[in-house]
Amino acid sequence: MSTSVDAAILNPDSKNGSNEALGQGQPGRAVVHKNYKGFVAGVFSGIAKLSVGHPFDTIKVRLQTSEKSQFKGPIDCVLQTVRKEGFRGLYKGATPPLVGWMFMDSIMLGSLTFYRRTLKDHVFKNPSISAYKPSNLRLTKSPSSAIQTAERELPLIGHGLAGILAGWTVSFIAAPVEHIKARLQVQYAADKSARLYSGPTDCTRKIFRAYGLRGLYHGLSATLLFRSFFFFWWSSYALLSKTLTNTFPTLSTPAVNFWAGGLSAQIFWITSYPSDVVKQRYMTDPLGGKLNDGQRRFWTWRDAARGVWRESGWRGFWRGFGPCFLRAFPANAVALVAFEGVMRGLPE
Fold it and tell me: What's the confidence (pLDDT) of residue 219?
């Protein structure tokens, strides 16, 4: 997830103590920075995240979608992949998410800002229901993130609801990207000529020709379900940012973002992982007939969930969790460092 919210850990404007990427602070210049600096920094964040996290993601997807007898565990999966397909096999399907994240990050940042402001102005406008007021938020330096700035008026539940809405919004780009990525990741043949898809472009073309746009969006419902758990990501990120800033006043802004981003990512995966297993099983299920890729087994994500339960019980919903959990912290932490560095380094 892998998914685009990972990159939405934000950098404050060192000149006005606000966040330019989200259009806060100086109104006139903020919009320009949102369109320029946030987009460019998001690209570098996506590259860093993919470089560190994609091998973990490949192992996760293969464990989630394979028969139990194929791999003994994560280490065996890594060894078999490298032995049969080389080191490059760990980066199968990397192109779709790399390209997709450039768009997903921009949409996530923009929609998250919009939903937070909308909730603040129309749902949590009554001071009595706003959990964090300026008098209740102790800051010894400039806010560590735009999320923390918003905590002055938006309660944790507001951050969580904004996360859900932003997750649903970005799902309409993430679903086809993750669909193509997953199908490429579960091609095990070392000989390229034996694979059904030669690459992301070929995979996209073949699915579109056979099933149209609906085929590319196979798994959208499961993607929407999975990204509903962004509630826990964004609410925990806001809470951790505030707690770290108040508990460790000497901690630098990037350090606060680093730890809050990594820890909140792990909280997210603990809560959402079973839904990700269902999503991957549904997305990699044969589409049937026209592509000669096998017989379709799951017609809805609920069918995929029942299939996982019948095959492995509750343990099946946690297969591959180890690589995913190990990936969550470093991938998001590195993405944050890249995002923050580029934001600070780009000219005004």
Answer: 94
Q: How many residues in total does the chain contain? A: 348
For 7, 64, 65, 182, 308, the CA distances from 281, given in Å and listed in that order, are: 25, 7, 6, 9, 8
Report the distance separating Cα 188 and Cα 66, nearest Å.
10
Burial class (CB in 10 A: 0-12, 13-18, 19+), 95: middle
DSSP 131: S
Residues 6+ apart with CB under 8 A from 48: 334, 335, 337, 338
pTM: 0.72
Instruction: Write out pLDDT tens, residues 210-257.
Output: 999 999 999 999 999 999 999 999 899 889 989 998 999 998 878 887
- Name the 3-class secondary structure at 40: helix
- Long-range contacts: 305-310, Cβ < 8 Å, 24+? 305/278, 307/281, 308/277, 308/278, 308/281
Please say whether the beta carbons of 22 and 34 come within 8 A: yes
In the predicted model, residues of the chain with pLDDT beneath 50 are 1-35, 131-143, 147, 149-151
Distance of alpha carbon 235 from alpha carbon 12, whole angstroms: 19
Query: Rounded distance, CA 299 to CA 89, Å?
Result: 29
Closest alpha carbon to 196 in 184, 210, 208: 184
Only one residue has tokens 């102790």, namely 138
What string of DSSP letters covers 219-268? THHHHHHHHTTHHHHHHHHHHHHHHHHHH-TTS-HHHHHHHHHHHHHHHH
Give the tens place of pLDDT for each residue, 316-328: 899 889 888 888 8
C-alpha closest to that of 12 among 236, 334, 245: 245
